């Protein structure tokens, strides 16, 4: 009996050690600096924009049980690793547009398609986002359906053939519910980055109850998934738009902005002026009454303003 108890105790201890060694530990300041990379050769303005120690950027909070990083072992992707991954450069080979493709009807209370387009245009400034004409659901004859749900892999196959030649990426949005396989209940969205397309459903965003929250959720999804299309993997270094999320609750806790490392990744392809980009996003958020989110972008556009780069000149 004693032997069995001893054996059980040691087995539990071994299991606990394995679980603890697998548990995600939040990267410290040195690891965050290393992830952003060497900034010495950049202009003073860009050094400021990508400063990993700026208090406007927050380290990643410790994942709660059930959160993405508590369940998925992800290695993250430093700026250097991003460059080595040979990501699709926006604008290369004439692929200079982001396309937004609506599928099926959007009810009155759903986010307006022009609003989503304007947001993507500000977020991925200076790339142009074009809105395509809606594809009616009855045109999706080759897409399997189940209880008013669309089969996501079929839909992606269909969209893969529709990607325009000048598209950096085609992002499809729909209010229809999606499912990835017969034994799954639903999926929020899927992407096929090699084919430069993705599809995302706003069906479960609570559009009937809270339109502002639904808009915020839709904007986060669009910006996050487009970020993947720029070759950015999930961020494990900062509290960031590119953090993975397991649920709406976890996603709602995340910010709408990119950390300095992920910002540097999109800047590599887009070459925007950071304060101009922040201003554009800020104008959009203020216009759409997302004041809490706008606050961060206001202060960030002030921090990165050219007038803050050098001491003011004598008159
Ligand atoms: Zn993701
Ligand atoms: Zn990030």
How do the helices and strands line up, and which of them pair or pack?
Layout: H1 2-22, H2 29-36, H3 44-49, H4 68-71, H5 79-84, E1 97-103, H6 113-123, E2 128-131, E3 145-146, E4 149-151, H7 152-160, E5 167-174, E6 177-179, E7 189-192, E8 197-201, H8 211-229, H9 248-253, H10 260-270, H11 274-287, H12 291-303
Parallel strand pairs: 1-2, 1-5, 4-6, 5-8
Antiparallel strand pairs: 3-4, 7-8
Helix pairs in contact: 6-8, 6-11, 11-12
Can you summarize this structure?
By secondary structure, this protein is of the alpha/beta class.
Give an overview of the whole structure.
Among the domains are: 60-87 and 235-246 and 254-271, no CATH class; 88-230, 3-Layer(aba) Sandwich (Collagenase (Catalytic Domain)), CATH 3.40.390.10. 41% of the residues lie in helices and 11% in strands. The chain contains twelve helices and eight strands. The protein has helices spanning 2-22, 29-36, 44-49, 68-71, 79-84, 113-123, 152-160, 211-229, 248-253, 260-270, 274-287, 291-303; strands at 97-103, 128-131, 145-146, 149-151, 167-174, 177-179, 189-192, 197-201. The strands form two sheets. It has a five-stranded mixed sheet with strand order 2-1-5-8-7, sandwiched between helices. A three-stranded mixed sheet has the order 3-4-6. A hairpin with a 2-residue loop joins strand 3 and strand 4. It is globular. The N and C termini lie far apart (89 Å). 35% of the residues are buried. One zinc ion is lined by residues 235, 238, 240, 242, 258-259, 261-262. One zinc ion binds next to helix 8.
